[in-house]
Amino acid sequence: MPHELKNLETPKDFFNYFFDDCLLSIITEQTELYSTQVDPSKPIILSKTELQRFLGILIMMSVDHVPNSRSYWSDNLGNMPIKNCMSVNHFERIKRFLHFNNNNLDLPPNHEDRDRLFKIRPIVELLKAKFSSVPFDEFLALDEQLCPTKARSYMKQYLPLKPHKWGYKLFVLCGVKGYAYNFEIYTGNENNSLERQQMLEPDLGATGNVVVRLSRVIPRNEHHKLYFDNYYTSIPVMVYLEKLGIHTVGTFRRNRFPDIALMPEKEMLKKPRGTYDECLTVVDGVPITTVSWKDNKIVNVTSTFIGALEPTKVRRYDKKQKKNVDVERPKIIEVYNKHMGGVDLMDSLIGRYRIIMRSKKWYIKIFYHLLDMTVVNSWLMYKKITGNTMPLAKFREHLSVTLMQSGIAKRGKGRPSGSFEIQENIKKKRTQTPSAPFNEIRRDCLEHWPNYEQQRRVCKMPKCKFQSFTKCSKCCVYLCYNNDRNCFVDFHCS
C-alpha cells in the first residue's frame, strides 16, 4: 500500500483520498461558471466546504428514505443533521446548478470528434486515476453494470437479465471483494481507431477493445488473472492479454470457437451429469485450454493458465434418486465460480444504499452513481487497511455526518426561541445525555464555544467523573471548564 493510504484512519479520510481537493475545485468552479451563464444577475457562490456538505446530504439520503427530498426538512419526517447543515432552498439551488465542465468548449452534436461524455468527462478521468492508484488484487473480474434510470436519453440501454432493466451501461473491472479499479461508460462510439494507433493496440472488435482498454491499468507480467463471461471471450483477446502477462479465464460460446475438438453438445446431453471433455491447442505460442462440462446445462470454459486438472466433488440433487449425489467438477469451473463475482458484489453493495435522487439531466444521474461507487470503494479500503468491520450503513452514516459538519458550524438566524411559561409542581424528565461526536468534528478547531447552561451534567472527557455547567456549542457535550480542570481544551485537542 502507498504511504498516503496507510496513514488514513477515518471514513472521511478514505473518502477524501478519492474525492480530493482537485476534484472538488473543478466542481465548484464549473458550478459557479454554469450559474453565471444561466443567470448572470444571481450567480451562485459555492465553496469546497459547502460542496462537502452537499455530498454529505446526498449520502445521508441514501440511508434515510422519505417520500421526497423536501421532506428531509419537514417537522415530522425531517432529519436533524440535514436541517442543521443547510437550508432546503440552498440545497436545491446547488442541485440545480451542479456542473462539471464548460459548455462553451463542447463540440456540436454532429461533429465526428465530439465526446458524448463531455459534460462529466473531468469527473470520470479523475476518479479512474484514483481508483487505479490502489494496488491490484491477483484475481480480477470484468463485467457489465447498470446505472438505473427511466429518463429519456440516447445512452439508455436495455439489459433484460439485470434487476433494473433500463439504465446507463458501464463496463467495470473489479477485484474479488468488489473494489472497482477501472470503469468505462458505454455511449456507443468508443471504437476510436486513432486512440488505438497511439496506444499500439490491435483492433479486436467492439467487445474485445473494451477488455483491452480496461486492462491498460493492470500491471504487466505480474501474473494477474482476469475473469469474464462469454460476452467478452475470444481467442484474439486471450492471446493478446497473455502476451502482456495477464492470464485469462472465461466462458465461451461454441460458435466463437470454430472447429473446436470437443464432444458435440448433442452427444454430451446424453451423458450422465458431471461428464466433461477437455482439449488443448496453441495459438501464436500461447497454450489455450477449453473444457466442456455437463451440469444442469452444458458449461463451456476456456483459460490460458488452468485446465480440468483433478476434478473435485460437488453436491447436486438428483430427481430420479430423490437425494443429493456427488458430481465431478473440473478445477477450471471451481476457479471461475470462486473469482468471477466481483462486479456483481459491487452491484449488490451499491444497490443496498443507493442515492435515489431523481434528475432529468443524464450526467447528474451518472454522478450520483459514481459517488455511490466511490463510497463503496472507500468502505472496502477502510476495512482492508484499518481492520475495522464497520457495516456499510454505519460507514455511510458516519461519513455523511462528518461531511455535513465539516468547516464552520452553521448558526441559526434571529433570536433564540424559548418558553416563558412557569409550570409549578411538575417534575421535568431528565433528557438523554448526548453521545460524543466523531473525532473529525471534535478536532477540527472550528466554532467550539463554551456555553453556560442552567443544568449541570457529567463531563464527557474520558476518566473524568465530575459534573459541569459548561457545554460545547458544536459538540453538544458537557465539559469541565474552571480553574481546577480544563477538560474543554483537552477534549478538543487530544
From TrEMBL:
Residues 10-379 form the PiggyBac transposable element-derived protein domain. This is PiggyBac transposable element-derived protein domain-containing protein. It comes from Macrosiphum euphorbiae (potato aphid).
